[in-house]
Amino acid sequence: MAASIFTAVPRAPPVAVFKLTADFREDGDARKVNLGVGAYRTDEGQPWVLPVVKKVEQMIANDHSLNHEYLPILGLPEFRAHASRIALGDDSPAIKENRIGSVQSLGGTGALRIGAEFLRRWYNGNNNTATPVYISAPSWENHNSVFVDAGFKDIRTYRYWDAAKRGLDLQGLLDDMEKAPEFSIFILHACAHNPTGTDPTPDQWKQIAAVMKRRFLFPFFDSAYQGFASGSLDKDAGAVRYFVSEGFELFCAQSFSKNFGLYNERVGNLTVVGKDADNVQRVLSQMEKIVRTTWSNPPSQGARIVATTLSSPQLFAEWKENVKTMADRVLLMRSELRSRLESLGTPGTWNHITEQIGMFSFTGLNPKQVEYMIKEKHIYLMASGRINMCGLTTKNLDYVAKSIHEAVTKVQ
Ligand SMILES: Cc1ncc(COP(=O)(O)O)c(C=O)c1O
What is the Cα–Cα distance from 24 to 311, expressed in whole angstroms? Predict the structure, then answer.
Protein backbone atom coordinates (compact mmCIF):
# COMPACT_ATOMS: atom_id res chain seq x y z
CA MET A 1 0.00 0.00 0.00
CA ALA A 2 1.21 3.51 -0.82
CA ALA A 3 1.80 5.91 2.06
CA SER A 4 -1.17 8.03 3.08
CA ILE A 5 -1.61 11.29 1.23
CA PHE A 6 -2.23 12.81 4.68
CA THR A 7 1.16 11.89 6.17
CA ALA A 8 2.34 15.50 6.14
CA VAL A 9 -0.73 16.83 7.98
CA PRO A 10 0.38 18.13 11.37
CA ARG A 11 -1.81 17.47 14.39
CA ALA A 12 -3.47 20.70 15.50
CA PRO A 13 -3.57 21.40 19.24
CA PRO A 14 -6.95 20.79 20.92
CA VAL A 15 -9.19 23.81 21.64
CA ALA A 16 -8.39 24.77 25.25
CA VAL A 17 -11.97 24.94 26.58
CA PHE A 18 -12.95 21.56 25.10
CA LYS A 19 -9.72 19.95 26.36
CA LEU A 20 -10.45 21.22 29.86
CA THR A 21 -13.94 19.71 29.76
CA ALA A 22 -12.55 16.37 28.53
CA ASP A 23 -9.98 16.35 31.37
CA PHE A 24 -12.75 17.16 33.85
CA ARG A 25 -14.87 14.29 32.59
CA GLU A 26 -12.05 11.81 33.07
CA ASP A 27 -11.24 13.02 36.58
CA GLY A 28 -12.51 10.44 39.08
CA ASP A 29 -12.29 12.67 42.18
CA ALA A 30 -15.67 13.19 43.87
CA ARG A 31 -14.86 16.81 44.74
CA LYS A 32 -14.23 17.86 41.13
CA VAL A 33 -15.68 21.15 39.87
CA ASN A 34 -15.74 22.48 36.32
CA LEU A 35 -15.36 26.26 36.24
CA GLY A 36 -14.08 26.16 32.66
CA VAL A 37 -17.32 25.35 30.87
CA GLY A 38 -18.66 28.03 28.49
CA ALA A 39 -22.33 27.47 29.20
CA TYR A 40 -24.95 28.13 31.88
CA ARG A 41 -25.42 25.56 34.64
CA THR A 42 -28.13 25.32 37.29
CA ASP A 43 -27.44 25.17 41.02
CA GLU A 44 -27.47 21.39 40.54
CA GLY A 45 -24.63 21.76 38.01
CA GLN A 46 -26.91 20.77 35.13
CA PRO A 47 -27.60 22.35 31.71
CA TRP A 48 -30.92 24.26 31.68
CA VAL A 49 -33.57 24.05 29.01
CA LEU A 50 -35.41 27.35 29.46
CA PRO A 51 -39.11 26.73 30.34
CA VAL A 52 -40.18 29.11 27.58
CA VAL A 53 -38.08 27.15 25.08
CA LYS A 54 -39.72 23.87 26.16
CA LYS A 55 -43.15 25.44 25.73
CA VAL A 56 -42.36 26.85 22.27
CA GLU A 57 -40.82 23.54 21.17
CA GLN A 58 -44.15 21.88 21.99
CA MET A 59 -46.02 24.53 20.04
CA ILE A 60 -43.77 23.97 17.03
CA ALA A 61 -44.17 20.18 17.25
CA ASN A 62 -47.96 20.59 17.28
CA ASP A 63 -48.06 23.07 14.40
CA HIS A 64 -48.89 20.95 11.38
CA SER A 65 -48.51 23.86 8.99
CA LEU A 66 -44.73 23.72 9.42
CA ASN A 67 -42.46 21.63 7.23
CA HIS A 68 -38.78 21.08 6.53
CA GLU A 69 -38.45 22.98 3.27
CA TYR A 70 -35.26 25.00 2.80
CA LEU A 71 -35.26 28.44 4.38
CA PRO A 72 -34.29 31.44 2.24
CA ILE A 73 -30.49 31.92 1.97
CA LEU A 74 -30.53 34.83 4.43
CA GLY A 75 -32.76 32.92 6.84
CA LEU A 76 -36.21 33.05 8.41
CA PRO A 77 -37.50 36.61 7.79
CA GLU A 78 -39.40 36.94 11.10
CA PHE A 79 -36.39 35.65 13.05
CA ARG A 80 -34.05 38.13 11.39
CA ALA A 81 -36.39 41.05 11.99
CA HIS A 82 -37.04 40.24 15.66
CA ALA A 83 -33.40 39.45 16.36
CA SER A 84 -32.24 42.79 14.98
CA ARG A 85 -35.05 44.54 16.85
CA ILE A 86 -33.90 43.29 20.23
CA ALA A 87 -30.36 44.40 19.45
CA LEU A 88 -31.28 47.85 18.16
CA GLY A 89 -34.43 48.56 20.20
CA ASP A 90 -38.11 49.00 19.30
CA ASP A 91 -37.71 52.66 18.51
CA SER A 92 -34.40 52.43 16.67
CA PRO A 93 -34.01 55.25 14.14
CA ALA A 94 -32.16 52.85 11.84
CA ILE A 95 -35.12 50.43 11.77
CA LYS A 96 -37.62 53.26 11.21
CA GLU A 97 -35.49 54.59 8.36
CA ASN A 98 -35.34 51.12 6.84
CA ARG A 99 -31.55 51.03 6.78
CA ILE A 100 -30.86 47.79 8.56
CA GLY A 101 -30.50 44.26 7.24
CA SER A 102 -29.92 40.88 8.84
CA VAL A 103 -28.36 37.54 8.04
CA GLN A 104 -29.41 34.47 10.03
CA SER A 105 -26.24 32.64 10.93
CA LEU A 106 -24.91 29.50 12.57
CA GLY A 107 -24.54 30.95 16.05
CA GLY A 108 -22.62 34.06 16.93
CA THR A 109 -19.53 32.46 15.42
CA GLY A 110 -21.26 32.18 12.04
CA ALA A 111 -22.30 35.84 12.21
CA LEU A 112 -18.71 36.86 12.92
CA ARG A 113 -17.37 34.67 10.15
CA ILE A 114 -19.83 35.85 7.51
CA GLY A 115 -19.26 39.46 8.57
CA ALA A 116 -15.48 39.00 8.44
CA GLU A 117 -15.68 37.40 5.01
CA PHE A 118 -17.80 40.29 3.73
CA LEU A 119 -15.40 42.89 5.14
CA ARG A 120 -12.41 41.21 3.54
CA ARG A 121 -14.17 41.16 0.18
CA TRP A 122 -15.76 44.60 0.23
CA TYR A 123 -14.57 46.90 3.01
CA ASN A 124 -11.91 49.58 2.60
CA GLY A 125 -11.31 48.61 -1.01
CA ASN A 126 -11.65 45.30 -2.67
CA ASN A 127 -10.17 42.17 -1.08
CA ASN A 128 -8.11 44.40 1.16
CA THR A 129 -6.50 41.84 3.43
CA ALA A 130 -4.20 44.54 4.84
CA THR A 131 -6.96 46.40 6.73
CA PRO A 132 -5.93 46.14 10.39
CA VAL A 133 -8.38 44.21 12.59
CA TYR A 134 -8.16 45.10 16.27
CA ILE A 135 -9.17 42.63 18.98
CA SER A 136 -9.23 43.38 22.70
CA ALA A 137 -6.38 42.05 24.83
CA PRO A 138 -7.52 39.59 26.04
CA SER A 139 -10.53 38.36 24.08
CA TRP A 140 -12.51 35.26 23.24
CA GLU A 141 -9.77 33.26 21.51
CA ASN A 142 -11.86 32.54 18.41
CA HIS A 143 -11.95 36.20 17.33
CA ASN A 144 -8.40 36.02 16.12
CA SER A 145 -8.86 32.73 14.24
CA VAL A 146 -12.10 33.82 12.57
CA PHE A 147 -10.52 36.94 11.10
CA VAL A 148 -7.31 35.12 10.13
CA ASP A 149 -9.34 32.44 8.38
CA ALA A 150 -11.35 35.12 6.56
CA GLY A 151 -8.04 36.23 5.07
CA PHE A 152 -7.06 39.27 7.14
CA LYS A 153 -3.29 39.54 7.44
CA ASP A 154 -2.90 42.30 10.00
CA ILE A 155 -4.60 41.28 13.25
CA ARG A 156 -3.67 43.50 16.17
CA THR A 157 -4.69 43.85 19.78
CA TYR A 158 -5.95 46.91 21.59
CA ARG A 159 -5.38 47.43 25.28
CA TYR A 160 -8.37 46.50 27.38
CA TRP A 161 -7.54 44.82 30.67
CA ASP A 162 -5.45 46.46 33.34
CA ALA A 163 -4.20 43.51 35.40
CA ALA A 164 -2.87 45.68 38.22
CA LYS A 165 -6.16 47.43 38.87
CA ARG A 166 -8.25 44.49 37.71
CA GLY A 167 -10.35 46.71 35.54
CA LEU A 168 -10.66 48.42 32.19
CA ASP A 169 -7.59 50.14 30.75
CA LEU A 170 -9.64 52.95 29.23
CA GLN A 171 -6.71 55.23 28.50
CA GLY A 172 -4.78 52.42 26.80
CA LEU A 173 -7.84 51.54 24.74
CA LEU A 174 -8.42 55.13 23.65
CA ASP A 175 -4.70 55.61 22.84
CA ASP A 176 -4.69 52.51 20.67
CA MET A 177 -7.75 53.79 18.82
CA GLU A 178 -6.10 57.18 18.32
CA LYS A 179 -3.07 55.48 16.79
CA ALA A 180 -4.95 52.95 14.64
CA PRO A 181 -4.90 53.59 10.89
CA GLU A 182 -8.16 55.09 9.61
CA PHE A 183 -10.75 52.49 8.55
CA SER A 184 -9.32 49.83 10.85
CA ILE A 185 -11.88 47.32 12.08
CA PHE A 186 -12.48 47.08 15.84
CA ILE A 187 -14.16 44.05 17.39
CA LEU A 188 -16.09 45.32 20.41
CA HIS A 189 -17.83 43.09 22.97
CA ALA A 190 -21.33 44.57 23.22
CA CYS A 191 -21.63 43.52 26.88
CA ALA A 192 -20.30 41.02 29.42
CA HIS A 193 -16.79 41.02 27.96
CA ASN A 194 -15.40 37.51 27.62
CA PRO A 195 -13.11 36.71 29.44
CA THR A 196 -12.69 39.70 31.77
CA GLY A 197 -16.33 40.36 32.77
CA THR A 198 -15.47 44.06 32.56
CA ASP A 199 -17.39 46.48 30.33
CA PRO A 200 -16.96 50.18 29.67
CA THR A 201 -19.54 52.35 31.46
CA PRO A 202 -22.07 54.27 29.31
CA ASP A 203 -19.90 57.36 29.66
CA GLN A 204 -16.77 55.45 28.63
CA TRP A 205 -18.62 54.08 25.59
CA LYS A 206 -19.33 57.69 24.61
CA GLN A 207 -15.62 58.46 24.73
CA ILE A 208 -14.86 55.34 22.68
CA ALA A 209 -17.48 56.25 20.08
CA ALA A 210 -16.15 59.80 19.80
CA VAL A 211 -12.63 58.57 18.98
CA MET A 212 -13.91 55.92 16.58
CA LYS A 213 -16.01 58.46 14.72
CA ARG A 214 -13.20 60.97 14.43
CA ARG A 215 -10.71 58.31 13.34
CA PHE A 216 -13.07 56.57 10.87
CA LEU A 217 -12.84 53.20 12.65
CA PHE A 218 -15.38 50.47 11.91
CA PRO A 219 -17.28 49.00 14.90
CA PHE A 220 -18.00 45.29 14.66
CA PHE A 221 -19.96 44.44 17.80
CA ASP A 222 -20.05 40.92 19.16
CA SER A 223 -23.17 40.48 21.26
CA ALA A 224 -23.02 36.98 22.72
CA TYR A 225 -24.48 37.67 26.17
CA GLN A 226 -27.37 40.12 25.81
CA GLY A 227 -29.38 39.91 29.05
CA PHE A 228 -26.61 38.17 30.97
CA ALA A 229 -24.71 41.27 32.00
CA SER A 230 -27.41 43.20 33.82
CA GLY A 231 -30.45 40.96 33.50
CA SER A 232 -31.96 43.62 31.21
CA LEU A 233 -31.95 43.21 27.43
CA ASP A 234 -32.17 46.94 26.87
CA LYS A 235 -29.35 47.89 29.20
CA ASP A 236 -27.08 45.26 27.72
CA ALA A 237 -27.67 46.62 24.22
CA GLY A 238 -26.86 50.17 25.33
CA ALA A 239 -23.49 50.41 23.60
CA VAL A 240 -24.75 49.17 20.22
CA ARG A 241 -27.77 51.47 20.37
CA TYR A 242 -25.62 54.45 21.31
CA PHE A 243 -23.34 53.86 18.31
CA VAL A 244 -26.37 53.61 16.03
CA SER A 245 -27.77 56.86 17.46
CA GLU A 246 -24.42 58.48 16.65
CA GLY A 247 -24.88 57.60 12.98
CA PHE A 248 -22.27 54.82 12.67
CA GLU A 249 -22.47 52.20 9.97
CA LEU A 250 -21.74 48.97 11.82
CA PHE A 251 -22.11 45.22 12.14
CA CYS A 252 -23.50 43.44 15.18
CA ALA A 253 -23.07 39.67 15.53
CA GLN A 254 -25.69 38.21 17.87
CA SER A 255 -25.65 34.81 19.51
CA PHE A 256 -28.75 33.19 21.03
CA SER A 257 -26.71 30.32 22.40
CA LYS A 258 -26.45 31.69 25.93
CA ASN A 259 -29.53 33.84 26.47
CA PHE A 260 -31.86 31.17 25.02
CA GLY A 261 -29.74 28.20 26.13
CA LEU A 262 -29.80 27.03 22.50
CA TYR A 263 -26.12 26.17 22.27
CA ASN A 264 -26.40 23.23 19.90
CA GLU A 265 -29.11 24.69 17.69
CA ARG A 266 -26.65 27.26 16.32
CA VAL A 267 -28.85 30.35 16.30
CA GLY A 268 -27.24 33.66 15.45
CA ASN A 269 -27.85 36.81 13.49
CA LEU A 270 -25.69 39.42 11.84
CA THR A 271 -27.26 42.87 11.87
CA VAL A 272 -25.99 45.36 9.33
CA VAL A 273 -26.67 49.04 9.93
CA GLY A 274 -25.99 51.29 6.93
CA LYS A 275 -26.54 54.87 5.83
CA ASP A 276 -29.61 54.10 3.73
CA ALA A 277 -31.74 51.28 2.37
CA ASP A 278 -29.93 51.10 -0.95
CA ASN A 279 -26.53 50.55 0.67
CA VAL A 280 -27.93 47.88 2.95
CA GLN A 281 -29.63 46.01 0.09
CA ARG A 282 -26.38 45.89 -1.88
CA VAL A 283 -24.53 44.61 1.19
CA LEU A 284 -27.19 41.92 1.71
CA SER A 285 -26.94 40.82 -1.92
CA GLN A 286 -23.23 40.12 -1.35
CA MET A 287 -23.94 38.45 2.00
CA GLU A 288 -26.28 36.11 0.13
CA LYS A 289 -23.42 35.06 -2.16
CA ILE A 290 -21.18 34.36 0.82
CA VAL A 291 -23.83 32.33 2.66
CA ARG A 292 -24.60 30.35 -0.47
CA THR A 293 -21.09 28.91 -0.63
CA THR A 294 -20.69 28.58 3.15
CA TRP A 295 -23.82 26.83 4.48
CA SER A 296 -26.17 27.53 1.59
CA ASN A 297 -29.11 28.26 3.89
CA PRO A 298 -29.50 28.07 7.66
CA PRO A 299 -31.30 25.53 9.90
CA SER A 300 -34.80 26.39 11.06
CA GLN A 301 -35.55 24.90 14.48
CA GLY A 302 -33.62 27.35 16.65
CA ALA A 303 -34.69 30.32 14.56
CA ARG A 304 -38.35 29.27 14.87
CA ILE A 305 -38.01 28.98 18.64
CA VAL A 306 -36.49 32.46 18.92
CA ALA A 307 -38.87 34.07 16.41
CA THR A 308 -41.98 32.57 18.05
CA THR A 309 -40.83 33.74 21.46
CA LEU A 310 -39.90 37.24 20.42
CA SER A 311 -43.08 37.81 18.41
CA SER A 312 -45.50 37.05 21.25
CA PRO A 313 -45.67 39.62 24.07
CA GLN A 314 -46.52 36.89 26.57
CA LEU A 315 -43.73 34.51 25.53
CA PHE A 316 -41.33 37.44 25.31
CA ALA A 317 -42.13 38.34 28.92
CA GLU A 318 -41.60 34.72 29.97
CA TRP A 319 -38.25 34.64 28.19
CA LYS A 320 -37.13 37.83 29.92
CA GLU A 321 -37.99 36.19 33.24
CA ASN A 322 -35.94 33.12 32.29
CA VAL A 323 -32.96 35.30 31.33
CA LYS A 324 -33.29 37.10 34.63
CA THR A 325 -33.28 33.79 36.49
CA MET A 326 -29.92 32.97 34.91
CA ALA A 327 -28.48 36.45 35.45
CA ASP A 328 -29.62 36.47 39.10
CA ARG A 329 -28.03 33.11 39.81
CA VAL A 330 -24.74 34.42 38.44
CA LEU A 331 -25.01 37.53 40.63
CA LEU A 332 -25.73 35.41 43.68
CA MET A 333 -22.70 33.17 43.06
CA ARG A 334 -20.54 36.28 42.67
CA SER A 335 -21.53 37.73 46.01
CA GLU A 336 -21.34 34.34 47.77
CA LEU A 337 -17.82 33.67 46.48
CA ARG A 338 -16.60 37.15 47.35
CA SER A 339 -17.98 37.03 50.89
CA ARG A 340 -16.39 33.62 51.50
CA LEU A 341 -12.97 34.76 50.28
CA GLU A 342 -13.21 37.89 52.39
CA SER A 343 -14.22 36.04 55.51
CA LEU A 344 -11.39 33.53 54.98
CA GLY A 345 -9.05 36.54 54.83
CA THR A 346 -7.68 35.44 51.46
CA PRO A 347 -4.83 37.83 50.56
CA GLY A 348 -5.66 40.43 47.92
CA THR A 349 -8.89 42.26 47.15
CA TRP A 350 -11.96 40.45 45.89
CA ASN A 351 -14.32 43.28 45.02
CA HIS A 352 -13.64 42.58 41.33
CA ILE A 353 -15.63 39.35 41.66
CA THR A 354 -18.85 41.30 42.22
CA GLU A 355 -17.86 44.25 40.04
CA GLN A 356 -17.32 42.08 36.99
CA ILE A 357 -20.44 41.09 35.08
CA GLY A 358 -21.79 38.32 32.89
CA MET A 359 -20.98 34.68 33.12
CA PHE A 360 -17.22 34.99 33.46
CA SER A 361 -14.82 36.36 35.98
CA PHE A 362 -11.11 36.99 35.77
CA THR A 363 -10.05 35.79 39.21
CA GLY A 364 -6.51 37.11 39.03
CA LEU A 365 -5.13 33.61 39.80
CA ASN A 366 -1.82 33.14 37.98
CA PRO A 367 -1.02 30.09 35.80
CA LYS A 368 0.77 28.30 38.66
CA GLN A 369 -2.16 28.83 40.99
CA VAL A 370 -4.49 27.58 38.25
CA GLU A 371 -2.33 24.47 37.91
CA TYR A 372 -2.55 23.94 41.68
CA MET A 373 -6.34 24.26 41.53
CA ILE A 374 -6.55 21.64 38.80
CA LYS A 375 -3.91 19.16 40.00
CA GLU A 376 -4.44 19.35 43.75
CA LYS A 377 -8.06 20.42 44.05
CA HIS A 378 -9.67 18.99 40.90
CA ILE A 379 -11.16 22.41 40.17
CA TYR A 380 -10.91 23.10 36.46
CA LEU A 381 -10.48 26.63 35.14
CA MET A 382 -8.80 28.32 32.18
CA ALA A 383 -5.04 29.00 32.41
CA SER A 384 -5.88 32.73 32.23
CA GLY A 385 -7.65 32.45 35.60
CA ARG A 386 -11.07 32.85 33.99
CA ILE A 387 -13.89 31.09 35.78
CA ASN A 388 -17.49 30.57 34.76
CA MET A 389 -19.61 31.71 37.68
CA CYS A 390 -22.27 29.13 36.75
CA GLY A 391 -19.83 26.36 37.61
CA LEU A 392 -20.36 27.42 41.22
CA THR A 393 -23.23 25.94 43.20
CA THR A 394 -24.42 26.27 46.77
CA LYS A 395 -22.87 22.82 47.34
CA ASN A 396 -19.36 23.53 46.00
CA LEU A 397 -18.92 27.21 46.99
CA ASP A 398 -17.19 26.46 50.30
CA TYR A 399 -14.81 24.00 48.69
CA VAL A 400 -13.96 26.36 45.82
CA ALA A 401 -13.42 29.35 48.13
CA LYS A 402 -11.16 27.34 50.46
CA SER A 403 -9.22 26.02 47.48
CA ILE A 404 -8.71 29.53 46.05
CA HIS A 405 -7.56 30.59 49.50
CA GLU A 406 -5.04 27.75 49.60
CA ALA A 407 -3.82 28.42 46.05
CA VAL A 408 -3.28 32.11 46.79
CA THR A 409 -1.54 31.54 50.13
CA LYS A 410 0.59 28.51 49.15
CA VAL A 411 1.52 29.22 45.53
CA GLN A 412 3.04 32.52 44.42
C1 LIG B 1 -17.56 36.61 22.99
C2 LIG B 1 -18.19 35.49 22.25
N3 LIG B 1 -18.55 35.67 20.99
C4 LIG B 1 -19.13 34.70 20.28
C5 LIG B 1 -19.38 33.46 20.84
C6 LIG B 1 -19.97 32.39 19.96
O7 LIG B 1 -21.23 32.07 20.22
P8 LIG B 1 -21.94 30.85 19.46
O9 LIG B 1 -21.76 29.67 20.32
O10 LIG B 1 -23.34 31.29 19.31
O11 LIG B 1 -21.26 30.68 18.14
C12 LIG B 1 -19.02 33.22 22.17
C13 LIG B 1 -19.25 31.91 22.76
O14 LIG B 1 -18.66 31.50 23.71
C15 LIG B 1 -18.41 34.26 22.89
O16 LIG B 1 -18.04 34.09 24.15
Answer: 40
